[in-house]
Specification:
The complex is a heterodimer. By secondary structure, chain A is mainly alpha-helical. Chain A has one domain (about 25-130): 3 helical TM bundles of succinate and fumarate reductases (Up-down Bundle), CATH 1.20.1300. Chain A is built from five helices and no strands. Chain A has helices spanning about 10-15, 25-55, 60-65, 70-95, 100-130. Chain A starts with 11 loop residues before the first helix and ends with a helix. By secondary structure, chain B is an all-alpha fold. Chain B has one domain: Fumarate reductase/succinate dehydrogenase, transmembrane subunit (3 helical TM bundles of succinate and fumarate reductases, Up-down Bundle). Chain B is built from four helices and no strands. In chain B, α2 (about 55-65) packs across α3 (about 65-95) and α3 (about 65-95) runs antiparallel to α4 (about 100-130). Chain B is elongated. The chains are: A mainly alpha, B mainly alpha. Chain A: Membrane-anchoring subunit of succinate dehydrogenase (SDH). Chain A: This is Succinate dehydrogenase hydrophobic membrane anchor subunit. Chain A: It is a multi-pass membrane protein. Chain A: Part of an enzyme complex containing four subunits: a flavoprotein, an iron-sulfur protein, plus two membrane-anchoring proteins, SdhC and SdhD. Chain A: InterPro entries: SQR/QFR_C/D, Succ_DH_anchor, SuccDH_FuR_B_TM-su.
């Protein structure tokens, strides 16, 4: 994206405003911490629930997981965890995969994987909640 | 990359004597990657519950087998270790705890705490589930 000076009305200052050397400022760092805090709080709520449900029969499990409060906690947890997974693995890939093509493929695979895992989990929770 | 080796490079991991804080940093990343794939366990369990009684029985059987429980114990330890490591990062984010004393203490607390809490967790599970 090379913009020759004069072809744009945006000043050079405006084009880089808010962007660091990684082209995304502190947004990545902030979301890592934000989702980390959300994960921590949601795990503390979800863990006792999962322990209670673990080992129970199918009907009892569906009844418990389908409760709105439980389902909402699980949905929030899945969303926060998968977002945290996505940006965390992105850093790992950027640190260790240096060939441009492989790196881009790995980053795409990372995005696909985390969205697929999150969507699958969310769909399961919603299906159980809506009594399917 | 041509010419890259001619510039002075900063020393990498293998130059340093292994230190506890360094190990905790590495383990934090490894547990993060393990948990990345470990989330599949939760999602598989949810999908099985949402699919059918038969599928749920199969997955419950797998998770309840000795090898399944072993994976779950490892998963819970990784989760707790990564969580304590994350709390340590929250403290560092405030600018505190970077001195030699605190950072060594954090490292020891992360190891000791993660093992103690994992044992406590499974004792509770064993007591509840019998």
């Amino acid at each position: 994206m090379s913009v020759s000076p004069g072809s744009s009305m945006r000043t050079p200052r405006r084009r880089v405003a808010g962007l660091g050397s990684a082209r995304s400022g502190t947004g990545h760092f902030w979301l890592q911490r934000l989702t980390a805090l959300a994960n921590l709080l949601l795990i503390l709520i979800a863990l006792p629930i999962v322990i209670c449900v673990a080992g129970q029969g199918h009907a009892a499990t569906l009844a418990m997981l389908g409760h709105p409060l439980v389902a909402i906690v699980l949905l929030l947890l899945l969303f926060s965890v998968c977002y945290h997974m996505k940006i965390g693995m992105q850093v790992v890939i950027e640190d260790y995969v240096h060939a441009e093509g492989t790196k881009v493929l790995a980053l795409v695979a990372n995005t696909f994987f985390t969205i697929a895992v999150g969507s699958a989990g969310a769909f399961a929770v919603l299906k159980i909640s809506f009594g399917g | 990359m041509a010419g890259a080796a001619e510039r002075p490079l900063s020393p990498h991991l293998q130059i340093y004597r292994p230190m506890l804080t360094m190990m905790m940093s590495i383990v934090h990343r490894i547990t993060g990657v393990a948990l990345y794939f470990g989330t599949l366990l939760l999602v598989i369990w949810l999908l099985a519950a949402a699919s059918s009684a038969r599928a749920f029985e199969v997955v419950n059987g797998l998770f309840g087998s000795w090898i399944g429980l072993l994976v779950l114990v490892g998963y819970s330890w990784a989760l707790i270790h990564h969580a304590i490591g994350g709390i340590r990062h929250f403290v560092w984010d405030t600018g505190a705890g970077f001195g030699p004393g605190p950072r060594e203490l954090f490292a020891k607390l992360t190891i000791g705490g993660s093992i103690a809490l994992t044992v406590a967790l499974w004792i509770v599970i064993w007591l509840v589930k019998g």
